[in-house]
Amino acid sequence: MLLSGTTCFLEAMLTHGSGVGNVARAVEEMGIRACLGKLVKFVETNPALGVTDARDRDVHHMSIDSLLDAHKTHHDSCDGRLQVWAACGTPRGAPLDGYAKVGEACKAHDIGITMHCAEAPGDLPIFHDVYNMSPMAFCRDAGLTSRKTVLAHMCHLDGEPDLAILAETGTSVAHNPTSNLKLASGIADVPAMLKAGVSVGLGTDGAPCNNSYDMLREMHLASILHRGVTLDAGSVGAHRALEMATIGGARALGLATEIGSIEVGKKADLVVLDLRGSWAAPWDPETVRQGGLDPVDLVVGSCVGRDVELVMVDGRILVEDRKLVDIDEGEIIKAARRAVTGIQSRSGVKATQKADWTYE
């Protein structure tokens, strides 16, 4: 994330296996800013609904008490760069009162909430058939809606009534276009959300659902995707996509007074892009000053994470000349390769290969 220009992230579903402490140590070492969503889970395996969840075996490690312990231990650590949030999965049959207890605990302890919600086509029928309500009516009745809540995906809502609840409660949405397209989940109606006054930030989802944490690629996709859906060339666009990735994300996290834009009094979280190559031509600062070139259109339309030259968080330079300053990237890559080898060995899963292709 740092190498592609992300200075702050919200982890939307940190499981027991990952360990909040492990990720907190990584945040400390890397110098990045983070909101870690500690998963609070209920038993969700439900054959009647066709729902299976292997994480149910660790459900006792993902209780409200475990959330409160993690919050007490790690919240506001890393020189104030780390927050601990509550995370919940999309409701798929678990009782509403369980989610309500999460909402009560978070309100009592001033803890942010993030939840996957209405992501896949099959989610909306579950809200209707199991809970007899819309996705946002569920969240409202469970006490999960507030200015301290970020709901991820939101591809399948009940139109204007759900949008009204989002806007009235100040609940934010994390739009993840690459993930939603890769997983064939659907497309969130972001233009309607923005028109209704909903706060929308831009996300990537997890690496398996995205293949990259490149927020510049995400901005580009968000800036053109909704034009094709709405047949409106003015829908969303580059400026709005940039806002969703910066100040919109900061606003969703409750950090808009601290980060998200370059202003006097805010923290020094900065990203510098290299626009000197052919990919950014005809970039010219003087032409920009004279109004002949829109730098936002150029950055969102032409740049990717590899164009990030420098990254600063809290006034500390973490990436310089496209390299991590204090961390050995090579060792991280080696560790990742070892981990992948172990996962493949334990699972026995292999990538599909085309019979008429040669793999070397």
TrEMBL record:
Residues 1-317 form the Amidohydrolase-related domain. GO terms for molecular function: hydrolase activity, acting on carbon-nitrogen (but not peptide) bonds. Keywords: Hydrolase. The keyword Lipid metabolism does not apply. InterPro entries: Amidohydro-rel, Metal-dep_hydrolase_composite, Metal_Hydrolase, MTA/SAH_deaminase. The keyword Hydrolase applies. Coiled coil: none annotated. Gene3D superfamilies: Metal-dependent hydrolases (3.20.20.140). Pfam families: Amidohydro_1. PANTHER family: AMIDOHYDROLASE-RELATED DOMAIN-CONTAINING PROTEIN (PTHR43794:SF11), AMINOHYDROLASE SSNA-RELATED (PTHR43794). This is Putative 5-methylthioadenosine s-adenosylhomocysteine deaminase n1 protein. It comes from Phaeoacremonium minimum (strain UCR-PA7).
